[in-house]
Amino acid sequence: MNEERGGDIRPGRLSPEAYAAHFTDHVPPLTQAQAMLEASRCLYCFDAPCMHACPTRIDVPSFIRRIAEGNVRGAAASILESNPLGGFCARDCPTEVLCEQVCVRNVQQGQPVAIGRLQRFAVDGLMASTESQIFTRAADTGRHIAVVGAGPAGLACAHALARTGHSVTVFEAEPKAGGLNEYGVATYKTAGDYAQREVQWLMAIGGITLRCGWRLQGVEQLEHLRQRFDAVFLGLGLGATHALDVPGESLAGVEDAIGFIRRLRQTQDMATVPIGRRVVVIGGGMTAIDAAVQSKLLGAETVTIVYRRGPQYMRASDKERDLAQVQGVGIVYWHAPVEVLGDDGQVRAVRFVRQHLEGERLVPGDDQRLIEADMVLKAIGQRLDSRVLRQCGLALRDGRIAVDGAGRTSLTKVWAGGDCIAEGEDLTVTAVSQGLRAARDIDRLLRVGESSGE
Q1: How many angstroms separate the Cα of 252 from the Cα of each of 91, 220, 348?
Q2: What is the spatial distance between Cα 2 and Cα 345, in angstroms, rounded to a whole number?
Q3: Could you tell me if 302 and 329 are in contact, meaning their C-beta atoms sit under 8 angstroms apart?
Q4: What is the rounded CA–CA span in Å between residue 162 and residue 206?
Q5: Chain-centre distance for alpha carbon 291
């Protein structure tokens, strides 16, 4: 097939040195001198807006003051007390729209304290020490809780319950724990197998058993968990992806961006990953940015993100869009795909139609645009496969599990959190906060000897 027409997908586009340089941390860690200097910029606000902007309510002024005083271990303890996945969140959390956005330094001077980088400095310092475990497990309570899903919500819930003395069995469908932290975040954000090192640190508290290769597929499984365990927490994530629903979507070279990122996260040699010469990414969220930037880092000549709305509607932050454009990624707004074109079963281009808003409704116009592509990555969101959940009797809202303010579902003895619930936000830090919320409620009910409504 003529490569000028499409199908130019191959590995090894770059030198070994280029791959090594491209897939290190895109934001380098702070040195001790840099961290001390940055910490000195904090005003240590009494009613700190940064703390209230954090879903896990990390006491930001407290941990930054400890860094300034040279107490890195104490700073890490303050962070991890509120967020046991604070190391990963320091790398992936959109601090620019949470704590750093409301930082008084940002409001007054347009330059926030680098809270995320300082958080990473503290937690990484602890993890690198010979005594990284700062928590001890309470005496065994004799209670046993099942956690379904070893993503951020499930891990946070399991760790909190184990700390209070309960035993926890975590059931995970994938070969490794970590959820999207392990399988769904750009490699350049979390280089060095950090997600697994954090899992190992969490598990070291004791009282947690991990059982991989277990997937919730039927009513009987959930009923068995409810009967066998004192409580059940569901941190299922979102396992299914949306389809484009346009002709040509099944052509070779068209795939889900989540699967593409997963493949990158699990490979040991980036030179073995095939990438198109011309890549089109469809979507406007963080996954779209991650897929597009990594395509460029793998050696794609042209990468174009196409989003059906304008920049003000993108879920990806300004910082993430700037990163993509610095890497040479083009972004096209107000266009939606209507057809994927191919030759001999291989994608060669995507046809888009320009859209505009009429009130709140997107309306296609007459203008069309053809963008050539060897590879098309779909980043148009994930959804919860709710068929089994409905059969189990779980109440749903907007296609996800409905929970109350404590994370309780409509089923007795069953809690839920993370992306699988209606309040899920596709953020690690939010999932962690919801896992911790459920753990507190489970522990309270078990300790006072109450059932969860039965």
Answers
A1: 34, 38, 10
A2: 13
A3: no
A4: 7
A5: 13
Dihedral of CA 132/135/139/143: which sign? negative
Q: What does the alpha-carbon distance between residue 39 and residue 113 come to, in Å, rounded to a whole number? A: 8
Structure tokens belonging to residue 195: 């997600």
Closest CA to 289 of 266, 311, 267: 311
Kind of pairing between the strands at 144-148 and 382-383: unpaired
Alpha carbons 244 and 248: distance in angstroms, whole number: 10
Helix-helix angle 60-68:115-127, to 10 degrees: 60
Q: What's the Rg (C-alpha) of the chain?
A: 23
Q: Do residues 380 and 43 touch, judged by C-beta distance below 8 A? A: no
Is residue 130 within 8 A of residue 405, CB to CB? The reply is no
Pair type for strands 144-148 and 231-234 = parallel
Q: Are strands 375-378 and 278-282 parallel, antiparallel or unpaired?
A: parallel
CA distance linking residue 426 with residue 428, whole number of Å = 7
pLDDT at 454 over 60: no
pLDDT at 15: 96
Predicted TM-score (pTM) of this structure: 0.92
Distance CA 324, CA 318 (A): 10
* Each residue's pLDDT tens digit, 9-21: 999 999 999 999 9
CA-closest candidate to residue 165, choices 453, 439, 436: 439
Q: Which two tokens stand for residue 221?
A: 């499984």
